[in-house]
Each structure stands twice: as C-alpha cells, then as structure tokens.
Amino acid sequence: MPRHTEITDYEPVTRSLNSQISGAEAKDDFMRVRLRPDSSLRDVVAANDEQAWRSKEPTWNEVSIPEGTPGKHEEKTPRLLKENWIIKRGHTLSYAGLFLFTVVLYFRPYELIPALSSLTSLAFWVAFSTLLVFLPTQLSLEGNLTTRPREVNLALLLVLAALISMPLALNPGEAWETFNKEFIKAVLMFIVIVNVVRTERRLRGMLFLALAVSCLLSFNAFNDYRSGRFAFEDYRITGSIGGMFGNPNDMALHLVTILPIPVALMLGTRNYLTKVLYSFCAVLMVAAIVVTYSRGGFIGLVCVAGVLAWKLGRRNRLAVLLLTIVSIVLFISLVPGNYMTRIGSIFDSSLDPNGSSTARSELFKRSVVVALANPLFGIGMGNFHIVSIREAVTHNSFTQVAAEMGIVASVIYTMFIVAPFGRLRQIVRETSSKGRASRFYYLAIGLQVSLIGYMVGSFFASVAYLFYAYYLVGYAVCLRRLYESESRPVEERNVTAGTSPATVRGGVS
User: Fold this and answer.
1) DSSP string, 3-16
2) Could you tell me what percent of the chain has a pLDDT over 70?
3) I need a surface site. Which of 113, 147, 399, 418 has the fewest CB within 10 A?
4) Structure pTM?
5) Rg (Cα) of the chain, in Å, rounded?
6) In this predicted structure, what is the pLDDT of residue 435?
7) Distance CA 463, CA 249 (A)
C-alpha cells in the first residue's frame, strides 16, 4: 500500500466546516487533499489550521470525530469553543481587578478626593480581591498557578532571595515591612499581568492607563512650574500625585520609561489625528522631565532619545538625522536658563550649591562597600539607611539590591530586566519588512527603549522594589506571548492540541 493516497471524492464536508478550513484546496463541498490511508477528518482540520490561523479565522483544537474510526466522520457541528480563545479571554474579572488596582496605584484617588481620605488601604484590598479571583480562574483554565517564562522564574528567585536574607537582616522587622509593603505586591501584580493580559485590547488598555497618568503628571508639573509652585530647592516642582510619583526624581524616571510608548503608538497608526495626539503626549512628557530638574531624568531622556533615533533611523537615516538636529536645537533654546547649570553639575560638582551630586557619589561608594562586605545575603531589605550617610538611601537600584539582598540577588534582578530583550529584538527583526503593517514592530521597539530608559534612570534612584520595572517587563512578556500566539508554527500548536498535521497539496505540513 502506498504511503499516501490521493482522495478526490472525499465524503462531503458541511459548508459551515468548509468555510473554516481555508488552507486546503476545496471545490464545492469536496476537499481535495493528500492523506495517509488511516487519516481522519481530524487530520484535515489540523492540516488546514495554519491558513485559518493566519487569516485570524477561528481554529479548532477538537472536532466531533468518533475515536477509532479512521477515514470516517460523523456530520456533526464542530465545537465552536476553542481552548486558546478561553484562556485568552477567560480572565475577565482578573483583568478588571488588575486594571482597577493600577488605577488606584497610579492616581491614588484617596489623595485627590477628600471624601476617600480614609481609604488609604484601598490598593491592598483591590490587590487582595484580584488575587482571590485570579488564582482559581488560572487553575481552572491552565491547571497551574502561573505560566513560567524566564522572567517569572527570575522574579520568583528574587522573592526567594528576599525571604532567605530576611532573618539575617540588621533589622528583620524593617526588612519584612519593606517586603510586605512594596516588593511582594509588585511581584504578584507582575505575575497577574503575565497571565491575564493575553489580548491586544487588554495590553493597549494597560498602556493607555500609563499614558493617562503620565499626561496628568506632566500637565500638572508644567503648570506648577509656570505658576512658581516649587517644593524643592526653590526651583523644583513636586509630583501632583504622591506615592511613587511624589519625588520629582521618581516622577522623571516614570516619564522617561513611558515616553517611548506614545512614540511607538504614533508611528504605528495611520490616523493623523491620533498621531497628533500621541505626539502631544510625548512633547508634554519631555517638558515635564525638564521642569523636574532631575539629572537622572535628563540622562535617561538622552539615552531614550538616542536609542529611538538609532533604531528608527535604520529605515530613513536622513530624516531621523534632520529631526534629531532640530530637536536638539529646540531643546537647548527652550529649556529654562538655569537648567543647563543643573545638568553641568553632573560633571562639575561646584555648580551644585546644595552638594547633592557629591553626596550621591559618596552614597554609591558606600553601597558598593556594603555589598562587598555582605555578598551572600546583604544587610536586609530597606536596611541600608542604618549603615548609610545621614540615613540616606542608595539612590541606585542595582547597588540597593546588592547591599540589601546580596550580590547574587542583584545579578538575578539585572537578568530579570534584561531577559525580555532577546525576544523583543527577534520580533523587531521578523516584522521589520512589514513596518507599520505589523501590529508588533513599533511597540516591540518602544518596550525595548522603555526598559533601557529604566535601566539608565534607575541607576540614580532606589526603586528596585517598586512597580516600575515589574510593569514594564510584564508588558514585554505579554507582547511576546501575543506575537507567538499568532506566529508560532502550526506543528507546535497541533502538538499542544494533541493532533498531527496532514500533508496538504501545496507543501503545507
């Protein structure tokens, strides 16, 4: 018996099923395919899954075929419920909880609305409720507590390092407070993001939320500066929202990390009105970074702008070069008069009347010495101020982790931030020929640059336990999973679904 036999008068396939199977050569109600003698209709569906996936038509992991009857089928309606569809959209309540938690985290409504001033623990209860919904839903959908990409494993290792170092801390109570108040919430919400944000609409919803709070912060910062409402050193504004945005340096770090997102969204849309809106958001953020007078924010801004120009300049170097020159000239001509003096203090400490640049340098040296003296487990989360200079923090997230949790933990933390770059670069490389036609190209570039902005900006801020990095890495993992769900080979999907592809005329296997 030959290995394959051509069946030209296969049993009729209903038109409803035939409309979903678009990869094979079809004529009227008959499928002309090349099958093994023991092939069933399941193999026909599996073989034609690739084209249906590419055209964004529903694909089936199961059809109603009696087991043990190869080559035959019952004319039943296929099950329209697809496992992958359920997993992507099954976390509706969990996503609602995540979205609400992020609203509370960013906007802190109990600060903006006096009537809510007693609800200072609102973020905790929203996070707790979200986890109560997320855990059973995740178990029912995927049979595990979380998916386990490399980034999740690294985050869990970082939690383990924190727990191990806690009993050995100089002040275990303070270490527990830091772990419980800030760090564990960031890690848990990161895990929720990775598992729940499985559709483009959900990812864009989270990104739009970050843009909304960034624009609000930027507008209020610029308005405070214009009105002369200074809170630091008689010329620096403070954040209009407290918490992770209350300090001007931390607010500048947030704006630096979010700035590439509106640029990416602007380049990825064809709607000119939307382009103008995203461009306005980006310009407003740049203005806010300037009026914070944050030197770390300035360095992060320069790095973000440079990397964006380098990555986007591959397509049109002349246009990007001219735009870069114009932007530099406008920036220098529009910044406040004493801004360049502030920036000059990075290189000449005598230009800083408050001596903060010298203090930062001394703190960095002290944090390195503490890390080298306690290389295994550090001195405990949140304990650096005990051995610091004038009770100050490290002002460097990398030495913060090294001094307080150990050098190994600092390596894990760095790997956690760097881990998404490989797949983001691959997405950019594989979609570069499509450009704007791809939904992933510019956003993958934007998230890469956002992570670079965080790495540079966090070198001047103690934010290792806050939400900045965990949200960004979460978004990068979500984008990667979205891309893989649309581009991974059909054979891999069929193995997951428990089917084997048939050999279809035309070479698709």
Assistant:
1) S-EEESSPPP--HH
2) 75
3) 113
4) 0.78
5) 27
6) 61
7) 11
